[in-house]
Design brief:
single chain; Porin; 18-stranded antiparallel barrel; about 5% helix
């Protein structure tokens, strides 16, 4: 009887296909962010510390799914998860946001306006739901499936579908469509190597467009700066091998995307990328280093370091080296910076997080120098990495059910940035009221203006939303 009931639930789930998250980039974030219950910078492959930050795409774009960036959330393997007593687990969640937004473009705070000021308002309504099926077939074997749906675009997809296998608690293997995240930056995921995308245009010595892509289609209809083939949700799949050690562990990765493969039924070896990530963790600090190479991307290597001082102040630092083995970067293809490109580039960051009064007040900041001039697009992010000196900051304070916050991101070289003040009130269980005023500032040809997530290209918005969410 129990088995029959489980199969009925499973079949109903397949028919309804409740969803959760789209593919890629950056974490489960509300309009004004969620309270970060775990602020530690663990240095593992899950970017947990971004939950309190504001999501640019979610704020500006009324057609965005409520939850984003599944590729940047990793279901880490664990002995406890594989040896569960329950052979079948089902979980589901739902989120609905509705409200009103008013904003303008060609505003005087951005110099160089080529038209008169314009103001437009809109109503907001978006919903997302998810269903996760977790089959623990034996202590060694597990199969997990995640289905998602969103409104108003009715985007339905399988966001995750993978198999875990445990070899005598010495080696953990995962195969299939899975979520991956390397790096620990709270603002700029430049060390999340598998989330990097090729440039929209790549040329050989004859000037012919040789940008890689599925079926050779390279149109950029949605205007996000990368071929539409790479903008499709949930298009990656990989094989991951985790070897635990007494002071950390080693992860081996084989990774590709549909857009990297010409024939999905018969991918060749040079259409699959590979790399590793080694972690060394002791009570005083956490250190990771890794590398990843795919023929259609630059070869990149990185390291990360983080530590906690005085049981409260968390400090982190990352560095990355990028090298174009094909030599394409020697040609000045990037007209946005106007630089003569070099095949070897370096990037570095340093950031901190601190909280006060039992986490009622949270403060974080980061400096990031991006030395790369090409392949700056990150899967799931509208605003790419920006060459030059970047600074970001976040501050929030809670009084009971009220939370106020402000987030800033700014590129010094381009004089382009965005500020996102917000207010959140949790009046009722599972319901929050949110007010935010995202504003782009700086020059009109800066990256934050050119990559504005708002479909109407408004530079400043006043958004009032109500969010209802829950799960089982």
């Amino acid at each position: 009887m129990k088995k029959s009931l489980l199969w009925i639930i499973y079949l109903l789930a397949l028919c309804n296909v409740f969803p959760q998250q789209d593919d890629d980039t950056l974490n489960l974030q509300d309009l004004l962010g969620q309270e970060n219950n775990d602020s530690s910078l663990s240095g593992e492959n899950e970017n947990e510390t971004n939950e309190d930050l504001i999501d640019l795409d979610d704020l500006f774009n009324s057609n965005q799914d409520v939850q984003t960036d599944t590729e940047n959330q990793d279901d880490s393997l664990s002995v406890d998860s594989l040896v569960s007593q329950n052979p079948f687990e089902l979980s589901a969640n739902f989120s609905m946001q509705g409200g009103y937004g008013w904003g303008g473009k060609n505003l005087p705070h951005l110099p160089g306006a080529d038209a008169a000021e314009e103001y437009e308002d809109l109503t907001l309504l978006k919903m997302a739901s998810a269903l996760t099926l977790d089959f623990r077939i034996s202590p060694e074997l597990r199969v997990l499936q995640k289905y998602s749906m969103s409104f108003p675009n009715f985007d339905t997809q399988v966001t995750e579908f993978f198999m875990d296998y445990n070899v005598h608690d010495k080696l953990y293997m995962r195969f299939g469509r899975q979520n991956l995240t390397w790096g620990i930056s709270r603002y700029y995921p430049f060390t999340n190597l598998s989330a990097r995308l090729p440039d929209q245009d790549d040329y050989d010595d004859t000037g012919a467009d040789i940008t890689p892509g599925f079926d050779g289609v390279q149109d950029d209809v949605n205007g996000d700066g990368v071929p539409d083939d790479y903008s499709e949700d949930a298009d990656s799949y990989s094989m991951k091998f985790n070897l635990p050690m007494s002071t950390g562990g080693l992860e081996l990765l084989f990774f590709t995307r549909n857009a990297f493969v010409e024939n999905l039924d018969a991918p060749t070896s040079d259409e699959v990328g590979y790399g590793f990530n080694y972690n060394f963790a002791v009570p005083l600090f956490d250190f990771s280093c890794g590398t990843f190479y795919h023929k259609q991307l630059n070869w990149r290597s990185f390291y990360t370091f983080n530590t906690t001082l005085l049981d409260r102040l968390e400090f982190y630092h990352e560095a990355l080296m990028s090298y174009d083995l094909e030599g394409d970067d020697i040609t000045p293809l990037n007209y946005e910076t106007g630089l003569t490109l070099d095949p070897l580039d370096f990037s570095v960051n340093a950031g901190f997080y601190v909280d006060f009064f039992d986490k009622k007040m949270e403060l974080s900041g980061e400096y990031f120098y991006c030395g790369e001039e090409t392949e700056l697009a990150i899967k799931g992010r509208t605003v790419p990495l920006i060459w030059g000196h970047n600074v970001s900051g976040y501050i929030s304070y809670k009084w009971g059910k009220l939370k106020v916050s402000t987030q800033l991101q700014y590129n010094i070289n381009q004089n382009s940035g965005v500020v996102l003040p917000g207010l959140q009130i949790n009046l009722l269980p599972k319901m929050s009221l949110n007010l935010s005023v995202p504003t782009i500032f700086g020059v009109r040809d800066g990256a934050y203006y050119l990559h504005n997530p708002d479909e109407l290209n408004r530079e400043a918005l006043i958004l009032f939303t109500v969010k209802i969410s829950g799960g089982i």
